[in-house]
Request: fold
Amino acid sequence: MNYPVWYLPFVGGGTLIALISIVHVFISHFAVGGGLYLVLAERKGLRENNRALLEFTRKHAKFFLLMTMVMGGITGVGIWFIISLVNPAATSVLIHNFVFGWATEWVFFVVEIVAIFVYYYCFGRMDPRTHQAVGWIYFIAAWLSLFIINGIVGFMLTPGGWLGDGNFWSGFFNPSFWPALFFRTFVSLMLAGVYAFVTTSFLKDTELKSVMTRYSARWVLLSLLAAAPAGYWYLSVLPNQARALVEGASPTIMRALHYGILGIVVLVAGTLVLLLLKPSCHTRTVSFLVLAGAFLFMGAFEWTREASRRPYVINEYMYSNAVLKKDRGELEREGFLHGARWVSTRAAGESNLLEAGRELFRNQCHACHTVGGINNDIIARTANMEYPALLGYLGRIHEVRYFMPPFMGNEAEKEALAYYIVKGLHGKDFKVSPEGTAAAGSKGKELFTGHCIICHPESLIKERTARWDRRRIRKGLDKLSALNPAMPDYDGTPEEKELMADYIHSLKTGAGESHDKGKEAFDKHCAMCHSLGQGVNPLLPRMSGWDRERIRKSLDMLDRLKGGMPPLQAPNEEKEALAAFLSRSLQGGVR
Amino acid sequence: MNTLIPTPDAIPAAWGWFQVLLMLVFPLHLVLMNAMLGSTAIAAYAVLRKDETLRGLAWELGKVIPFLIAFAVNLGVAALLFLQVLYGHLFYTSSVLMGVFWLSVVPLLIIAYYSTYLFDFRFPTLARPVAAVLICLPLLIFLAIAFVYSNNLTLMLNPDVWKAYFGNPGGTLLNLGDRVLPARYLHFIVGGTAVGGLFVAVLGRVRKGMDQGVREAAERVGMRVFTVLTGVQIAVGFLFLAALPRPVLLLFMGGDMIATLLLAIGLVTALILLMAGMARRVWLCAGLALPLIYVMSFMRDFVRDGYLKPHFSPESLQVVPQYSPMVMFIVVLAAGLAAVVWMLRKASSALRTTRK
Reply:
């Protein structure tokens, strides 16, 4: 709200950040581990007095230089550019709090550049001892760069004591600092081996190729082995909410992790089977396949790390949309537009619903949602929602989906945002009134629309529950996260769950039909002796306090109930419909 | 007060520290950038001319350009860091307004960088048209990047034109309506290429391993470019000065004594450089050009403050002091520079004793 929002409806800033940063991270970690690989490979060549190996190291250094200096260096600047464009407020916090951290990292960057130039251009022209020392200087400077950046990046996920004291060191040596440092160090050593597969695949000397392939494979496998406990340690220090997202509560993280696992499988299989056990199979294709596997793995790691701090960009301090957590209460009281700088309207009212809604969307939602675009498309996400449902959802969006920031604005602004999405983006016609177009006539449908439809259209639920009986549906509603960890549990009352279960169950037979079928069954089997609420032998007073489950059970044992009724001769489906009808009637639906 | 100007964040040390650091690294960034631009322009000229000696010069420059890019980028990072500490709220805003162009700097630079490496590593086997493409492409890219930078760094000084965002939030704005922009851009390009020419001449003097004819060509062409463009630059400088808004212009006309003095020193130094250039006094020119670049950078700082005076001054930034990280930086800087000096000395001696 302090800065203008770069509006990219199709691509979205998040995609651009991911694109640039994943490429950068894949290279910059290589820039660390690869430095050690160069020094140790050269040492091996020197000890064995192996000129071919030294020549290989020189060529690998050239590849390393071209890869890390150009792509690595410039995409590093690129990350800086893109984060300041997409989230200038958060970038400003990072720059102002850690300016001397960045400045220190810059010094290491200078040392790295000079060292790698001297290392490559003086290869074979400098006494080996000094040359090795230059290589070590490069590696140490590169690792110290990692040390610094790791502190600042980790701060965003786990700001730790900084939240209380605002101190540089509290933020820098944050709770995830050490595990992340170990994890990244091992990953960088792993990447050193993976990239070396590429250069070794170009070797014509088969013996050297075999030796260096095995040598590189050991780097990959040993580093991966060491990275595993470091990764576990890293995971264990995450805040509970972040860990829950990583462990399944976030669908995008789950998707990323699937890719990551695929990447690891390709990486390990390629390294283990082809390269370590059978180096002769080492071809350029295999090396690029392994590289692709490592890329998937790194991409998944970075994606997961970024996504796990949602809904924040700086955990517990600033939301992804740059609104500060501490401002939430005030924004809900005073309104968002009132205090925002880069908006075209200062308040939401009947005359400017679309404009106000658009501004709210850009300032609060566009940080993660595109409009008809390639990532997190708001149009697809809200396709099933009518205005009242969306309005209700906006009010408890953060509670239902932890990784979404809460809507921060007053009631009029919330209505404007819902209006903009439903009318402005979907072009649906309706009247603005919270009760206006509610799913009238069916409370179950109303509840379904308010809670489920954001992710599940009716057709999908109908398909998923096609083989489920009503009891199973009802049971599922008690623990949605057991069905899928990404689903938040439904916090409705037992009565609401009954109604929702009825509605979902009725989808199989067609919405609305359930009511008719239930009424039909009542008329057919009960009406001869019972009225519902008033009249002859009213049924409802006798069932007062019964839940849907109890009604359904009793329909199976009418002959054992007091009063000597005949058993109900009806198919299961008819009993379900009758139970739903009676239950709804008890809730006040029909008298 | 312009309501679109974001609220800046607090800084961890008195603003003067950052100003000193900015003014220390920015002129060095300019020197590298000028050398990079001028060397690329002269290498392009040398490739396009059908002359064997000039072809040799093109290759020699091709070997140097990737180094220049690396250090220009590196020093640019430092300058941009300290700029963001003091002026970040203005700079981020103007960057967002022209986000598409600003971000395009990244892929463009990667293309230019790889192109110069190809030019360097493959030069002996390159056909002339291919070599011409590989060196002209980065030249055009550098000119384009300079234009993007000129736009951003003038747009950040003009909050009054920021409201154009409401008609175009997609990041495709430029500051083309600013009448200072063309003169400013020209000033940097012409001055930059002139200094680049001087760099090429110096290279001819110091690279003793180069072919004698090539060394002479480097000095001849470099000094010619330097002298002619310094003459042009004096004229462009006046144009730039005249195009400045009146309150800013008046700073250099007695409104501020230091600014006026800097202008006088700059002008006199430029005239001496012109004469020294005509006399092909390479070392005298080099010795004067570096301080002149610092003088010009300080003048540039006065221009920035003059523009921003109605809106913002770095003195107004809130300071929440934390000096221990600064101590870490200074210690690491000293150690880092010591390591750099040690490595360069070792490299220089190694390359001298094993000259091919």
About this structure: The two ends of chain B are 64 Å apart (CA to CA).
